[in-house]
Amino acid sequence: QVQLVESGGGLVQAGGSLRLSCAASGRTYSTYTVGWFRQAPGKEREFVSAIIWSSGNTYYTDSVKGRFTISRDNAKNTVYLQMNNLKPEDTAVYYCAARRGGYISIAGWYDYWGQGTQVTVSS
């Protein structure tokens, strides 16, 4: 079992930055892919970014490329999502999720989920 706890959300003006954290407890990430998803009101949960823990390979949805950076800290068993140049359309609840195995952008293939953290970007 893996327990995930997100933090770092908040209210920010357009153009600002936030850093989300996803701390894991229980089993380690070493064989996992960790992803970030987001869900805006009335919309489906969508993929944002993912990192393969063992290799460090990263993946992004097109709308965040060049603005968001996913990274990991082995010692802290934590994954980060650095979000720069935020836009109002980035407003959503952000979730981290983990799955055994390789990268996939489909939420249903992730086994473990955090509780979510709200990100609100004002115009």
Biggest sheet statistics: 7 strands, mixed
Q: What is the overall silhouette? A: globular
Termini distance? Answer: 40 Å
Mean pLDDT: 95
Helix content: under 10%
Number of strands: 11
Query: H/E element string?
Result: EEEEEEEEEEE
If you compute it from the alpha carbons, what radius of gyration comes out, rounded to the nearest whole angstrom?
13 Å
Tally of contiguous helical segments = 0
Assembly state here? Answer: single chain
- The computed structural class is mainly beta
Low-confidence stretches: none
What fraction strand? over 45%
Descriptive report:
The chain is mostly beta strands and 123 residues long. The protein is 0% helix and 54% strand. It has strands spanning 2-7, 10-13, 18-26, 32-39, 46-52, 58-60, 68-73, 78-83, 92-100, 112-113, 117-122. A hairpin with a 4-residue loop joins β7 (68-73) and β8 (78-83).
Labels describing this entry:
0% helix; 123 residues; single chain; mainly beta
